Amino acid sequence: MNLSVAAVSEVVWVLGIVAWCIIRYPFERRAKRVPIVSNRRTGSEAVGLAAALAGLAIVPGFYVATSWPAAADYAPRLWAIVIGTILLCAAMWVFRRTHKQLGRNWSITLEIRKQHELICAGPYSLVRHPMYTSFLLMGLSQAFLLSNWVAGMAGLIGFGVLFIVRVDKEERMMLEVFGPRYRAYMAKTKRIIPYLY
């Protein structure tokens, strides 16, 4: 393995995780101060969040720290690092914009907060779930940055599990709370990929 190319890609991945933590921290702190009106947490949601955490942070972090499983390595490519870096920058941009747009409405789990509002501006004008869009972009960037079949693909698998177990429940919750307004919003927007899906 070309260590210099591999090392650069791993450093970029680590910087992405650091950026993710820096972006999320102040919103997480502020969210704790806003009372929760309705909590829809379920066991399947916990599984989805755990899968996303494992796939986007724990498995690749373990690989970066230990190089295990080295048997799944393949030769890193400079073009893949460039694509992965671009995707990671896009993911962080969407991630930040989504948090800013949500403001006091943000929650890590399925919760409705006091004076919860339906957000339809910013990234929400293009897709209903831009936070998932950022996770998808992170998973794709990880696949390009980490030249290991296990660690590289773990992010997309983790994202997929979270998306499958949670997005329908999230949309049902929003329909219960916002009714026809959310249904009209659904008719105008795609789920996570603008103009496609």
Task: Explain what the structure shows.
This protein has 197 residues and is mainly alpha-helical. It has one domain (3-106, 117-188): Four Helix Bundle (Hemerythrin (Met), subunit A) (Up-down Bundle). The chain is 68% helix and 4% strand. The chain contains 6 helices and 2 strands; from the N terminus they run αβααβααα. The protein has helices at residues 3-31, 43-66, 78-102, 130-145, 149-178, 180-188, and strands at 36-39, 111-113. It has a two-stranded antiparallel sheet. The longest helix has 30 residues, at 149-178. The protein is elongated, with a radius of gyration of 18 Å. The protein starts with a helix and ends in a 9-residue tail after the last helix. The chain crosses the membrane at residues 6-25, 46-66, 78-95, 143-165. Its main location: membrane. It is found in: Membrane. GO terms for molecular function: protein C-terminal S-isoprenylcysteine carboxyl O-methyltransferase activity. This is Methyltransferase.
- Can you list the strand order of the major beta sheet? 1-2
The N- and C-terminal alpha carbons lie at a distance of: 37 Å
Could you list the spans in which at least 5 consecutive residues all have pLDDT below 50? none
CATH architecture: Up-down Bundle
Cα gyration radius (Å): 18 Å
Helix content: 55-70%
What's the pLDDT, averaged over the residues? 94
Largest sheet: 2 strands, antiparallel
- The portion of residues forming beta strands comes to under 5%
Membrane topology: Multi-pass membrane protein
GO biological process, one term: methylation
GO molecular function: protein C-terminal S-isoprenylcysteine carboxyl O-methyltransferase activity
Pfam family, one: ICMT
